[in-house]
Amino acid sequence: MVYTGAITVAAAALLAALPVSASLYSKSSPVIQIDAKNYDRLIAQSNYTSIVEFYAPWCGHCKNLQPAYEKAAKNLAGLAKVAAVDCDEDSNKPLCGQFGVQGFPTLKIIKPGSKPGKPIVEDYQGPRTAKGIVDAVVDKIPNHVKRVDDKTLEGWLAESNETAKAILFTDKGKTSALLKSIAIDFKGSIYVAQIRNTDKEKASLELFGITKFPTLILLPGGKEAEGIVYDGEMKKEAMVAFLSQAAAPNPDPAPAKVKLQKSKDAKKPKPKDSTKSADPASATEEVLEEEATESPSPEVDTEKPVVLPEPAPPIDILDSEKELHIVCLGAKTGTCILVLLPNSPDEVGAAAVGSFSEVAHRHRLHNRKLFPFYVLPEKNGGFTQLKGALSLGDGLQIIAVNGRRGWWKKLPTDGTISAKDVTEEAIENWVDAIRLGEGTKEKMPEGLIPEEVEEPVVEDQIPVEEPIVVEEVKVEETKAEEPTASPEPHDEL
Ligand SMILES: *[C@@H]1O[C@H](CO)[C@@H](O)[C@H](O)[C@H]1NC(C)=O
Ligand SMILES: *[C@@H]1O[C@H](CO)[C@@H](O)[C@H](O)[C@H]1NC(C)=O
């Protein structure tokens, strides 16, 4: 190509113009970027195990690690947190210092301890490969799953008989990372057990009439008489949505203390039942070892009086019809939600956008994949076109569409959309229902989706509805493993 030379020079000039300490991980990276301010909330207070990379953007070994680390983050999505701290940032230096970071990159596995906010920190010194990292972190996922057999089932069911319980009947002896992660999501609200399909558990299998494996059942009232059988796929999001009918999963990170929401619909924090005793942790076989060092308490920023919530960035606005067809109404686009927002929207419209923004933000913080939400403003030509084609009424309309499968559905309301239809909870429930494929779907009318769309970019850009977690963590290495006999190289500080 004739222009290659010129382009390369231009690109080089562009790169040179960038600030030297641009962060190693982009905004869209699956690696969570943490700093001195949010370390406590995102990592130390979490019920999940994390791995944290302490790095400097200029460090060559850190750059070499980046692809493997991002791959590990993808493979661990929903199971553990993969985070990074830029130790070159002045404000992060005390945090890096408190962790005793002496070279880059330094990797530490941070596992919840027996007290909230007091995690157990261990160095990770294994191979700097995605597989090495994933295996080590999976090994440290807290296990709140009780293994139950015929002898212990009755006792377990009688334990806190008001608390919802979930039981996985499985052919496997080992507790999967997936089930452990589910027990973490519902820690304190649903007790999770696993029963293996062997001769020692025959009575338990009969009690629940279990004939196929794996089978998940939910006992919302904690008693065996009320079991609900899960018939979806053994994928995390769908299983969590199923269990959510008994209790909401713990928000992680926990909601910040101060809410700057002035809307009258402001969500009250969910009441925490502090009287709930019998922490399921006490029923697990795994004892949290204290042999590792306690976390330093990196309360660094002493000037900061209140913890402000991380505001949810608003969902994207589709400015043009073309954009609408590329991201949401194409022949190959997966599920997406459109908030058809009229000019000068009222409070309900604003609340709807706020709720979708919150839900999307929460999923991002959890590294959970979710189909996208967009605002389709009245000034976009697609607004009137869609309203006509789908015979939608005046004013605010909220729909989910799937171009590839040719269906659409409306946010359920009793007539027109009102404030109660667009609370965060209502939106979250609707999104979950779509994810589970529940509810009726309308067939998309002919001609709404352009047939000829052949844009190769689309497939990559559109997060299709694809559950994030597989039961077994699989890691395909593309890179040859680095030699691991000698200690990993560091760039000295
Ligand atoms: C539940 O537990 C309470 C107290 O531990 C007991 O009084 C009650 O009978 C139990 N209910 C059932 C259905 O087992
Ligand atoms: C951690 O688990 C406890 C129950 O033991 C729960 O109350 C809390 O909300 C969870 N925290 C997070 C951040 O998920």
UniProtKB/TrEMBL annotation:
Chain ranges of the Thioredoxin domain: 11-143
Protein name, UniProt field: protein disulfide-isomerase
Alphabetical GO biological process terms: response to endoplasmic reticulum stress
Region entry Disordered, spans: 249-312, 471-493
Keyword Signal among UniProt keywords: yes
Root EC class: isomerase
UniProt entry tagged with the keyword Signal: yes
Signal peptide: 1-22
Subcellular location: Endoplasmic reticulum lumen
Species assigned in the record: Hyaloscypha hepaticicola
Biased composition (Basic and acidic residues): 262-276
GO CC aspect terms: endoplasmic reticulum lumen
Known catalytic reactions: Catalyzes the rearrangement of -S-S- bonds in proteins
Record-linked PANTHER family: PROTEIN DISULFIDE-ISOMERASE A6 (PTHR45815:SF3)
Chief location category: endoplasmic reticulum
Pfam families linked: Thioredox_PDIA6_C, Thioredoxin
